[in-house]
Amino acid sequence: MTHAAQPEKLIEKLAADLENFLEQRHIKNPIMVGIETGGVWVAEQLHKRLELQEPLATLDISFYRDDFSRIGMNPQVKPSKLPPQVEDRHIVLVDDVLQTGRTIRAAMNEIFDYGRPASISLACLVERSGRELPIQADVVGQDLELHNNEQIKLNGPEPLSWVIKRVE
Amino acid sequence: MVNKATRPADPFIGQDLWNIQLQNGQLKHFLTIEGLGSDMLTQILDTAESFAGVNESVKKVPLLRGKTIVNLFFEASTRTRTTFELAAKRLSADVLNINISTSATSKGESLLDTLHNLQAMQCDMFIVRHADSGTAHFIANHVAPHISVLNAGDGRHSHPTQAMLDMFTIRRNKGADFGGLRVAIVGDILHSRVARSQIHALNTLNTGDVRVVAPRTLLPKGIEQMGVSVYHDLQEGIKDADVVIMLRLQKERMSGALLPSEQEYFQLYGLTEETFAAAKDDAIVMHPGPINRGVEIASSIADGPHSVILDQVTYGIAVRMAVMSMTLGHNGKREAQA
Question: Does the interface predicted TM-score (ipTM) exceed 0.85?
């Protein structure tokens, strides 16, 4: 098992990489969207470091999950806060862990219910194996090799730390 | 027999672990407030808060796509039926409205046969209103295991989604701590399933002071045992209240001489600018509708700045979306998804 680096260190790297990425793509003044809950913690820090003008948006994808009929309603669902105009805007999605890709699919579906953005980019603190959909991150803090029966979760918000546990 | 004393404590459950509304501690049917703990009521309100955001922005989410919801109303209703229908549609469910007066029930088909036929059409939820107390409960006991039943009002017994949208309205206006609130429910308590559900919900949420205000003829016997204080004088009853809930005189359910006349009722129990002055300066006025202007409430109050009557209707959609998604998503256990 590889070791997951300190979340704060990864955010530092992610911020620098994201800045380069946006510059290369000539994206100015994007809307940063953090996915509840871990993604919002990461996005808050990225938003600060990149000094974005547009306020941070948040997304709770509970209403868009594809496993609702199997696992039911998230008891801690939070309201999504997206700006009213996403039409033709550049969006940077931020999440803590990219595994199956299903969360990102749900997030994109929700964003498209608000309008048609010019582009969506994805920044993830940790990318791990286990993809079930053709979705990749544009900017990644760390690539992590984990077994299928290992779970990684970001704890926070103060301080941020990783919890890795085995599930049988 | 199960010994009550040995039942495990569960914060979601008031007293009865064998409450048919609950399955693995999650809401399966929503029939009454009774038997649900404050954690469960708070979870409904929190979920509704998220759906209120949906209603203001995207209007529609795909959560219940492919589910079929049947509105089974044996009693007249506009607000409740349409807000249930709208809530279902905003969750992307398909809605069937069964018009009972033109259905096979009027040809002599029994309630259970009607149900079994609807069940055979692969429905997922029944929303039931009936003039007889206990109908929704009866149906919940007889449906297939995958079906959820929501009570949209049964006789004089309960109307739980109305009570929850009222709690939502109070929380939006007065904050989440009900401990310091004085709430007065005024009018036809006797015939009101809304009042009974409100009283249970307010007490479950630990409201500081719950009052009922009505003439003796419009109060059920033993109402004090529900944990309310009883007043017969309007101004005394709503004195320093934070919330005043007016109820409609349910003339269609009245048999015999309970009241001398509507005019006299309005004089004694109608909410006017003059009588409302007894409540707190920032008090809100609620009414489950439909309102009878000049019978229980003056137009100047119903349309005035303290009235949140139309907000209640708006919030009703979010609260019903919350209850529908919580009951239809009851299968299996929750797990993390990254």
Answer: no
